[in-house]
Every structure is written in structure tokens, then in C-alpha cells.
Amino acid sequence: xxxxxxxxxxxxxxADHAAGCAWWSTLIGRAPDRRPxxxxxxxxxxxSVLLQVxxxxxxxxxxxxxxxxxxxxxxxxxxxxxxxxxxxxEKVPGFDTLRIATFADPDGNTVNLLGGA
Length: 117
Prior knowledge:
Layout: E1 8-13, H1 17-28, E2 34-37, E3 40-46, E4 49-54, E5 64-68, H2 72-81, E6 90-91, E7 99-104, E8 110-115
Parallel strand pairs: 1-4, 5-8
Antiparallel strand pairs: 2-3, 3-4, 6-7, 7-8
């Protein structure tokens, strides 16, 4: 029997929940889709993939989030305009056009923005 998964949750733990939700709202470009409990803000990202920012640096099971974007350069420009420091993207070895820009959120979680194929 095959496991039937309906949703995938990516959880990031932060020390300051309000600041973490604000930072991730800036990154994503919009407010959370819901706050299912006081210690969680949550966004629907793609299909049934949900990103949660949790009020506990120990509670998050992930310390890296990678997001493939349709317009990498435009998103980097938008985020830089919001005051988020991001290095220029670099080509990923072994791929024709895939580029990656890596930086950290205020809690030190790694964020990878990918563009291309």
C-alpha cells in the first residue's frame, strides 16, 4: 500500500515569533494565509505545500528552506528593496540554467532562492 500524502508542512522555528512572521511575510510578499494557533503563522505556497513559522527555535524540524521561483532576479530586487541582504545568485554546477542565491533569516535558518532549470 502506498502512502497518500495530502499536504506537506515545512516548519521553521524562530525565537521571536512576531518578528519571524513579519520577516517571512516580507520574504513571501504577503501576510500569512492563516494563524491556526497563536504560536504558528502559515502560508500556502504551492499546491499542498505549506510553510509554518513556529514560536520556538527548537520546534522547527527544518533549518533550510529552498524556494524555486519563476522570476529569481525580480524577487531578489524586491527583497533588496525591503532591506533583506542577498548576494547575487550563482550558477549551480551540473545544471544548464539553474542559479541559487543563499542567505539567512534573522534566526540563522538558511534560505535558498532558486531560478532556472
